[in-house]
Amino acid sequence: MWSYFANPHKFLRLSDWLAPLFYGAGMLCILWGLWQGLWVVPKDEYQGGDIMRVMFIHVPAAWLAMAAYSAMAVASFVWFIWRHELADIAAKAIAPLGAVWTALCLATGSIWGKPTWGTWWQWDDARMMSVLFLFFLFLGYMALRAAMDTRQKAARAGAILAMVGAVNVPLIKFSVDLFTSLHQDASVITADGPKMAAVYLTPLLISGLGHALLFGGLVMTRMRTEIRERRIARLTAAALEG
Amino acid sequence: MSRPAPILAAFRQAFGEAWAGGAGALLPLGFLGGAAVLVPLGIGSDGDTLRAVGPGIIWVALALSSLVTLERIFQADTEDGTLDLWLQADAPVSAIAAAKTLAHWLAAGLPLALFSPLLALMFQAEASGELILFAGYYALGSLAFFFWGGVGAALSATVRRGGLLISLIALPLFVPTAIFGALAMSAGPGSTGAPLLLAASTLFACAVAPYAMAAALRLAAD
Fold first, then answer.
1. What residues in A contact B208, CB-CB < 8 Å?
2. Can you tell me the distance from the alpha carbon of B148 to that of B142, in angstroms, rounded to the nearest whole number?
3. Residue closest to A18 by CA, chosen among A223, A232, A205, A197
4. Measuring CA to CA, how many Å separate B96 from each of A107, B8, B33?
5. Closest chain B CA to residue A149
6. Alpha helices for chain A (secondary structure H)
7. Quick one: closest CA in B to A130, which residue?
8. Does residue A167 sit at the B interface (CB-CB below 8 Å)?
9. Which of B74, B156, B219 to mutate to test the interface with A (most CBs of A within 10 A)?
10. 3-state percent breakdown (helix, strand, coil) of chain B, nearest 5
11. CB pairs under 8 A between A and B
């Protein structure tokens, strides 16, 4: 099965129609989620009134930030063990996108926090710290890859760093649960099911799905670009030799 | 005595480098002292403020000193070929990397931690036995800083001007240690278990970092 997914030609054929499909479906989900969030759902005074509508961007962005890092770590692991080039291409493609969604999560969180908690940023809040930490991990990963002089070295160094970061993530999650924090506890993914009213939950989940689809589509497009760049580099090298 | 010899040699080489090449513990202490003296100049000399920020400043200074010390730890070995010999030696690379990191911590991290009660007094802390306990916390935390910093140093061993890269790579990894350490010294909620968590995060660093350093060093030797 691995070798099936590791074949760049098959990937190019698959992503040729799957990426546009992801873009279209993701766009629909995000637009529907935004329409529901901005105009349909009742505002929640406890969460700051109208400002809580930012949730339909903030929460999907937070999910995506974590999912992106996990995906990057898994791709790095697959590359490190089996040396499937496509896995490295995926990890490289995910990093900047993950950084963007993490930044989006931080920005929307600040915008939500200022009117409700009275502060843009709270330093002793482990949850905010851990998302910021995730952001720096993405930046460090990109900087390290950029500093290496060959593609192979960039892939190896990046994979080591992504895996080291990944083993630290449980520690961070644990510290989040330990500390008393301004941030509300998890209310969608809990042991006894969602604690949120269905009127908020459905648009939130659809919006989350939309962000995930958009993310998947962008990753595929970036991977296609990278595959072609590598092909150009190979062809150029061959032409120069011959 | 044949098997541990490369590890011992790595430890001796690194310790000698860190101790003799940098005026012993005086240079790191000078760095810490210099950094600490800048703080009252920067934020004013008000006693209450200094007492509040003192422990945090010492944590930051420890983190920075580990980064400054570690910049060349593997880079010099890559350049002069020592690294290739380590890789052929009859000992795991992870153990050699751990020995080198430990040597640097003994020469540059531990003295700073032992020096910390004096700095705390300069930051207007009450003189009490607690300061000695805090020195132990600083020692534990700085060990984690050195191991994570070592991962950054090994990854950027072949990169020119790697120092900036080490900071970007290692600082996020410092975060749990810094949080647990600061919590252990506060009187707030969660402070009772924090010393144990600090110790756990340091042990975790000691367990994971050597393998990452070994993988990165094999890459640097290629």
1. 164, 167
2. 10
3. A223
4. 43, 8, 31
5. B159
6. 2-5, 8-35, 55-82, 85-117, 126-147, 151-178, 198-241
7. B175
8. yes
9. B219
10. 80, 0, 20
11. 75
Q: Which two tokens stand for residue B80?
A: 């002069």
What residue type is B80 in one-letter code?
D
Q: Integer distance in angstroms from the first to the last C-alpha of chain A? A: 37
Query: A133: how many CB neighbours lie within 10 A of its CB?
Result: 22
- Measured distance between the N- and C-terminal CA atoms of chain B, rounded to whole angstroms: 30
Q: Which residue has the higher pLDDT, B177 or A64?
A: A64
Q: What is the pLDDT of residues B112-126, one digit of tens each?
A: 888 888 888 877 777
The enclosing H or E element of A51 equals: none
Which chain B residues in 50-109 lie under 8 Å from chain A, judged by CB atoms?
none
Tokens (6 digits) for A195:
């604690």
Provide ipTM, 2 decimals.
Answer: 0.82
- Nearest 5°: the CA angle A205, A209, A214 is 150
Rounded to the nearest 10 degrees, how much is the dihedral formed by the CA atoms of A130, A132, A137, A138? 130
* DSSP state for residue B107 in the 8-state scheme: I
Q: Cβ contacts (< 8 Å) between A173 and chain B: which residues? A: none
Model confidence at B1: pLDDT above 50: no
Residue type, A28: L
Is A161's CB within 8 Å of B165's CB?
no
Neighbouring C-beta atoms of residue A67, cutoff 10 Å: 18
Supply B77's token pair.
Answer: 């070995």
Residues forming a β-bridge with A44: A49
Residue A162 touches chain B, beta carbons under 8 Å = no
Find where tokens 């060349």 sit: B72
**Contact criterion met (CB below 8 Å) for A65 and A105:** yes
| pTM for this predicted structure | 0.84
Q: Which amino acid is at A202?
A: T
Identify which of A164, A90, A119 has the alpha carbon closest to the alpha carbon of residue B149: A164
Measured in angstroms, the CA of A33 and the nearest CA of chain B are apart by 33
- Report the distance separating Cα A61 and Cα A55, nearest Å: 9
Q: Nearest-CA neighbor of B177 among B209, B154, B153?
A: B209
Asked if B205 is an interface residue toward chain A (Cβ–Cβ < 8 A), one would say no
pLDDT tens digit sequence for B113-168: 888 888 888 777 777 778 888 888 999 999 999 999 999 999 988 887 777 888 88
Which region holds residue A196: left if phi is over 0, alpha if psi is between -120 and 50, else beta? beta
Residue in B159, B179, B219 closest to A175 by CB: B179
